[in-house]
Design a protein that fits this description.
With 634 residues, this protein is an alpha+beta fold. It has 19 helices and 13 strands. Strand 6 and strand 7 form a beta hairpin.
């Protein structure tokens, strides 16, 4: 039975970095963070009574913005509390305080299968036999308890020494939760069964994911490559799996039994346990480099539902920086965008700030040495004289209320400027081939602009939509009057563009084809009220577009020296891909900061994104972009 206890109220005084936070008989140091998630930080902790090393997942309740977020947390706790297998990460205790939830779990010291593949490359069949025998044993207990994981993949199989542990149960369903989970796709598309694409999940969905995972570990690629989720589902249903390298006949049959499209004929976990590939007597003990050198950067945190920002900035490329400090759970986007001249706003001067942006050396493909770029601009706003304050991108208590409020508003306007450029690139470059995907994307970008402009217009009308400090006092400030004039001018421009796109999609035949997609249909209107569900649907469509453009470029690009410039005819597609990835990150950050516009202004570094300078792209840039797609699990 799961033990749940209420922790005593903890002191609010700052805790030194070398001090240990105590939760009953468990403790951890703030310097021992081993991973970050959507609203959580995972620490390497200790049971102070037994000295056993544990993992402590600290979930900030402020990051749980919607009922769905709470449901995901409940699902993880409900699933893990019912399981007690040597091949499933164990949950020891759960503690609740006013501000946080603490999950005390087994500490897995040897990384995960995804890291193993990234660091060591493809694995030998003999090494994987013993691993998958253990995974099957863990899954047998899950089936007995009526639990479906729904996000099995190599990154969610932890390793404790040589023992595999199924982890990351945030998307799991149990007999208690299955009826309350929303009817939306979850999981990672590359590992989803054909039925899962239709929102139907069962034990057989997880069996499919195990087959894909084994295939990937053996060959370094998944069985099917596609440019969109729709194409991927079609290939799964129509193209037989083919093997790009040698494996034993028994192993081939094991994988094929997992990847039968008809789930009634797909293997059960009991059939896999008895399969001759796992029953062979020469199961080998895992040897080689060993797993202890692997470091699981996001231990215990679900990757498919979380934004993973990595240090991959180089040579002025769109990039991300390290997460914020220990006391904050939000992720910091620190982006210095590359851009061509395409999609620039004409006759509109930028809303900018002085910035000091570190350009970090990209570890895998260094293109230039670390340097610091300083830019200082004094520009007018919509041809008006606005003595812009010099904003810093730090949270400082000494800011006066007016300056902080200005900063929040300007960040929203800069976000709209960025989206205007994204829309121009979508309109210019035809690298999205799936029927109506480009139209959906173009509509959503322009609607997103209008949603933000609607919030800004509401400010002018006296409604505090951006949670500004001392609002009534602030709106009488002369600076707000100048910003209001700029908002009105921007709104006229963006409204005209939205109406053009909106009217172009009202043809009855075209409209009927668009609304076949029920997710898109839910937001296909001219209602500009901001809901978090808009960004969930947006990111689903962005993900499809990004994968499709990546696929199209992959077919056209023959790799050259990383320093060599990309051909002009495909550079536009790479620029568009880069912008959409950044938009995906920003939309995810908006969800995280949904009721914290100041947090979005600080963490997004949106002023730097909106004011990127033209840079010709190289093959090295394209490699970085593809690496970012993989790291963000898009």
């Amino acid at each position: 039975m799961l033990v749940q206890q209420q922790q005593r109220q903890m002191t609010m005084a700052p805790i030194p970095g070398n001090a240990r936070k105590v939760i009953e008989n468990f403790s951890y140091a703030l310097t021992d963070a081993i991973g970050k998630g959507f609203s959580s930080i995972v620490y390497r902790g200790r049971n102070d009574e037994t000295n056993e090393i544990v993992a402590i997942k600290v979930i900030d309740k402020k990051g749980l913005k919607t009922p769905l977020h709470y449901q995901l947390l409940r699902s993880e706790v409900e699933a893990l509390s019912q399981l007690n297998s040597n091949n499933i990460m164990r949950l020891y205790k759960v503690y609740y305080t006013e501000n946080n939830t603490y999950l005390i779990t087994e500490y897995c010291d040897s990384g995960d299968l995804g890291s193993l593949l990234s660091k060591q490359g493809i694995q030998k069949e003999g090494q994987l036999q013993k691993l998958f025998f253990g995974i099957i044993q863990g899954y047998k207990q899950m089936k007995q308890k009526g639990i479906v994981h729904r996000d099995l993949k190599p990154a969610n199989i932890l390793l404790k020494g040589q023992v595999p542990k199924i982890a990351d149960f945030g998307f799991a369903t149990t007999p208690q939760t299955v009826s309350t989970m929303p009817n939306v796709n979850v999981g990672s598309p590359l590992y989803m069964s054909p039925q899962a694409f239709k929102n139907r999940y069962s034990e057989k969905s997880d069996i499919w994911a195990l087959g894909v995972s084994l295939f990937e570990l053996l060959f370094g690629q998944v069985p099917w490559q596609a440019a969109s989720e729709r194409e991927l589902a079609q290939k799964m249903a129509t193209v037989p799996v083919s093997f790009p390298g040698y494996v034993s006949d028994e192993c081939r049959d094991f994988i094929q039994r997992c990847l039968i499209v008809d789930e009634n004929r797909r293997a059960t976990v009991e059939e896999l346990e008895r399969h001759q590939w796992l029953q062979k007597q020469d199961l080998q003990v895992i040897q080689g480099n060993g797993f202890s050198s692997m470091f699981r950067g996001n231990h215990g945190c679900s990757q498919s539902n979380q934004l993973q920002f990595q240090n991959i900035q180089s040579n002025g490329c769109l990039s991300t920086a390290s997460p914020l400090g220990e006391t904050q759970n939000k992720q910091l986007i620190q982006i210095q965008p590359r851009e061509s001249n395409y999609g620039k706003e004409n006759n509109t001067s930028s809303i900018s700030k002085q910035s000091n942006t570190p350009i970090q050396q990209q570890q895998q493909q260094p293109l230039r040495s670390i340097k610091r770029v300083q830019e200082s601009r004094k520009e007018s706003l919509m041809n008006q004289s606005m003595n812009q304050e010099q904003y810093t991108s730090k949270r400082e208590d000494e800011w006066n209320d007016n300056k902080k409020n200005d900063y929040i508003i300007v960040a929203q306007m800069n976000f709209c400027r960025y989206l205007y450029r994204v829309a121009a690139l979508i309109d210019k470059y035809r690298f999205v081939a799936t029927s109506y995907l480009r139209e959906k994307l173009l509509f959503l970008v322009n609607k997103n602009i209008m949603i933000k402009m609607n919030n800004l217009k509401e400010l002018i009308d006296g409604h505090n939509t951006l949670i500004l400090d001392k609002f009534q006092q602030y709106i009488s400030n002369p600076q707000f009057g100048k910003l209001s004039a700029a908002i009105n001018q921007y709104n006229q421009k963006y409204t005209l563009q939205f109406n053009t796109v909106w009217l172009s999609l009202q043809n009855p035949e075209q409209k009927q084809l668009l609304v076949v997609d029920k997710k898109f249909d839910a937001v296909f209107d001219d209602n500009f009220t901001e809901y978090e569900s808009f960004y969930i649907i947006l990111n689903s469509i962005l993900r499809s577009a990004i994968k499709e453009i990546e696929y199209q470029l992959e077919q056209q690009i023959t790799f050259q020296d990383p320093q060599q410039l990309l051909p002009i005819d495909i550079e536009g597609g790479v620029i568009l891909l880069d912008y959409l990835i950044t938009y995906f990150q920003l939309a995810s950050l908006i969800q995280e900061c949904f009721e914290d516009p100041y947090g979005f202004a600080v963490d997004s570094k949106i002023e730097q994104i909106a004011d990127g300078k033209p840079v010709r792209l190289t093959f090295g840039h394209y490699l970085e972009i593809r690496n970012k797609i993989k790291q963000l699990d898009i």
